[in-house]
Amino acid sequence: MAELTQSPNRPRRLMADYLKTPWAAIAALLIAVAILDPGNWTAVVIFAGKALAHTGQYILFAVLLLSYLKATGAEVMVARAFEGRETRMIVLAALFGGLAPFCSCEVIPFIAGLLALGAPLSAVMAFWLSSPLIDPPTLLITAGALGWPFAIGKAVAAVALGLFGGFIVKALMGHGAFAQPLREYKPAGCCGCGPTKQEKPRWRFWADPERRARFRAEFLYNGVFLLKWLALAYVLEALLVSYVPADLIAGVVGGEGVLPIATAALVGMPAYLNSYVAPPLLAGLMEQGMTAGAAMAFMVAGAVSSIPAMAAVWSLVKPRVFAVYLGLGLSGAVIAGVVFQML
C-alpha cells in the first residue's frame, strides 16, 4: 500500500531534482535564445560547443588525475603537513592546500580533528585559504580557459594567500588572540572521518579490487560533474560575449589602478562561482575589457567565499575567526590582483 501511495509523487520529485541541475539551466538558456533571438541560437551553440571541445582534453586528464589520487589514498599525505614546528606547518599546509583532492564535506571532519588535537589555527588557516583556490582539476581547467600563465599565477596566489593568512594569524596568536578558536563540533558523518596519519597511499592501486572500484566511481562522478558545470559555463560565456556590451564591462572592471581590482574582488566574493565555472566566464569578461588583475582578484575572492569553504569555517570556529578568514581572503585577493596586473 505504501508503494502505491508514494509512486505518484516519484515523477514529480524526479522532475524537481532535474530542474535544480546545470542541465536544466542549459536547456532553459538555449530555449530562451531560440525564442527571443533565433538568429543567434546557432552561433551561441557553436561557440559553447567549440570551447567545451577545446577544454575536453583538460577535463579528461583532470578526471583521471583526481580519480588516481582518490584511489591511491594520496590525501592522507596532507595530514603529515600538520606535524612539527609551527612555521613548517604553515608552509606545508599552504602547499598541500593546492594538492588535496578533498570533497567539501571531507574537509570538515579533517580540519575539526586537527583543531581538536591541538594543531595551531595558523596552519589550519593556511590550509583553509589555499585549498578552495586550486587543485589539480582546477589548475588544468583554468589553463584550458585562460592559458597557463593565468593558471600558474592562480596556483602561486593560492600558496601565497595561505602563507599570508597563516603568518598573520600566527602573529595575532602571539598577542593572545584566538585562544579558543573552535566551536563545539559534532561530525555529521557525510563522508566519514578524514584520513589518519598512520595510513599509507597505495600508488599501484589496481592490485586492490576495492581501490579499482573507487577509481571507476570517482572517474564517472567527477567526469559528469565537470562536464555539466563546464557546459553551463561555456553557454554563459557565449551569452556574455553576445549580449553584454564591452563598454559596460570595461567601465566597471577595466582600466588601470587598484580600484578596478578592488571592485572585482568585492563583486567576486558575494557572486561566488565554483572554480570550474569561473575560468570560462572570466575569459569572456576579459574579451569584453576586464583586466587580468581584476580577473585574478575576482577568481581568488570568489573561491575563498565558496559555500563549502565558508560553511566549513562557520561550523567549526567562532565568529571572530570567521571574520578574519573573510578579511584575509578579500585583502589577499586584492593583493594577488595588483601583483598579477604588474607582472
From TrEMBL:
Coiled coil (residue ranges): none
Keyword Membrane among UniProt keywords: yes
Pfam families tied to this protein: ArsP_1
Keywords: Cell membrane, Membrane, Transmembrane, Transmembrane helix
Membrane-spanning segments: 21-39, 51-69, 90-119, 139-164, 219-236, 248-273, 294-316, 322-340
Subcellular location as annotated: Cell membrane
InterPro entries the record matches: DUF318, UPF0718
Superkingdom of origin: Bacteria
Family: Belongs to the UPF0718 family.
The protein's name in its UniProt record: Permease
